[in-house]
Every structure is written in C-alpha cells, then in structure tokens.
Amino acid sequence: MPRNRSNTLTEAELRLMRLLWQIGECSVQDLVSAMPEAQRLAYTSVLTTIRILETKGYVEHRQEGRAFVYTATVAEQDAQQSEVRHVMHRFFGNSRERLMLALLGDGDVSPDELDKLKQAIAEAEAAAARRDAEQEEAE
C-alpha cells in the first residue's frame, strides 16, 4: 500500500526551495549550478525533486523554448508557517503554549530573543484586543 504524500518539505526539497526563493524563476540547470559544489545533486535528481515540489503545489513551471522555467508558488514565510503548524499539530496537540514552552525549555534563549518574543506577545495581545472590540461593536 503506497504512503500518503506529505505536504511538508523533505531536506532535499527544502534546499531547492531555498534556492528558488533566493534566485527566483530559473531552470533545473540553473538550480544545479547554484548549488554549492559539496552539495551539488545530479540534474536528474533535481528534476525529480522539482517535479515532486510541483505536485505538492510549491512550484509551477512555464515553457521557455525547449526548457521549463520554474517559479516558487509558495512564499518562504508561508512555507515556514505551514511547517510550524504541522509540527504544532503533530507533536504538541495544536497547542501554541506547549510549543512555546518546549522552545523556551531548552535554556538556550538569549536576552535579545526573549525581548523579541515579549514584543511579539504584546503585539498579539493588542491584535486580540482589537478583534474583541470589533466583535463587540458588531454585536
């Protein structure tokens, strides 16, 4: 019985997506050439992976002459959010609190990171308060 196809990115897929986000529209050969020498994959491996990414909806192509030119259809930030939601669902029962406590629990959080987290929490609280006020006005 075949496995269900995952919408998360494998390491190889993520490497190609990072190149696409960096370069923009490009051919498979452009992707191969842009890879660091030590991590360079064969053309056929890149082609196979880019086709999988297209099946997953992360990439689309258009024909330019005889070559296909590929473009990311998912922004990097959207892919990051999707992966975080996947991890949160899979490991933390859809609990943002449990996810954040796990992130903070390793003790490696710098004071600068804590300040940024506090600012993000304050902004989230302000946005929630605005939504609550708008909802009360609508009722």
Radius of gyration, whole Å: 20 Å
Percent of residues in helices: 55-70%
* Poorly predicted sequence stretches spanning 5 or more consecutive residues: none
* CATH architecture level-2 label of the largest domain: Orthogonal Bundle
Helix-strand makeup class: mainly alpha
CATH homologous superfamily label of the largest domain: Winged helix-like DNA-binding domain superfamily/Winged helix DNA-binding domain
Tally of strands = 2
Main sheet specs: 2 strands, antiparallel
CATH class of the largest domain, anyone? Mainly Alpha
* Global morphology: elongated
Order of helices and strands: HHHEEHHH
The number of helical segments is: 6
Strand content: 5-15%
Q: What do the pLDDT scores average to?
A: 91
Task: Quickly count the domains.
Answer: 3
Q: How are the strands of the largest sheet arranged?
A: 1-2
**CATH third-tier fold name of the largest domain:** Arc Repressor Mutant, subunit A
Q: What's the end-to-end separation, in Å?
A: 52 Å
Keywords:
139 residues; mainly alpha; Arc Repressor Mutant, subunit A; two-stranded antiparallel sheet; elongated; WH-like_DNA-bd_sf; BlaI_family; transcription regulation; DNA binding; DNA-binding
Describe this structure in words.
It is built from six helices and two strands; from the N terminus they run H-H-H-E-E-H-H-H. With 139 residues, it is mainly α. It has three domains: 11-72, Arc Repressor Mutant, subunit A (Orthogonal Bundle), CATH 1.10.10.10; 75-108, no CATH class; 109-139. It has a two-stranded antiparallel ribbon with strand order 1-2. A hairpin with a 2-residue loop joins strand 1 and strand 2. Helix 2 (28-34) crosses helix 3. The protein is elongated and about 60 Å long. The termini are far apart.
